[in-house]
Amino acid sequence: HSGEHMLSLVTQILEYSRLESEGSDLHAETLSVTEITEAAMRMVGVLADKKQIPLLRQWDGRYKFEIETDERALSQILVNLLSNAVKFTQAGGLICVCVDFDCAGGVKVEVHDNGIGIPQEKIASVCTGTDGTGLGLSIVTSLIRELGGEFEIESAVGEGTCCRVRLPLKIGGSISADLEEEEIERSVTSA
Length: 191
Known about the structure:
It is a single chain. By secondary structure, the chain is of the alpha+beta class. The protein is 47% helix and 23% strand. The chain has six helices and seven strands; from the N terminus they run H-E-H-E-E-H-E-E-H-H-E-E-H. It has helices spanning 2-22, 33-50, 71-87, 123-128, 136-146, 175-190, and strands at 28-32, 55-58, 66-70, 95-101, 107-113, 150-156, 160-167. The strands form two sheets. Strands 2-4-5-7-6 form a five-stranded mixed sheet, with helices on one face. The longest helix is centred in the N-terminal third of the chain and has 21 residues, at 2-22. The model is unreliable at 182-191 (pLDDT under 50).
């Protein structure tokens, strides 16, 4: 078990170093966020099953939630967030992934768990990898930034954590720019 932990830590350090030195080589394509989310849930499902933690999904199946993004980066973000949720949720706990349109434009993905939670004063250090628990969330933060998105964590000790990822409709776009573009399109088509 300690060998697996060491390998995971070395892999995280290498990925973090690569992202910091050269950035990510993003390949934008139109993708369904829900399809990538389901694939990430299947990957992490083995870990969740071992702890008897159900991975629930919540989104409106009538929509594909398509955005222009990098599949590898988005997949890595979701796998890291789900792996953390499983790691810090006790056996028999619960994890729910929600995908929806963001009111500011774009798409948001939320990973909720009823795990141990993060003290408020530690959230910033967890996101930068300076808390000693690993680099998973600092990698997530870097990748989300490269995709033009935003990352938030809400947590309460003993109650659980919600990690919220907001992604623009296009790489390099911003969430507020997407909203302005939508408003312009609506005003042009309604005129």
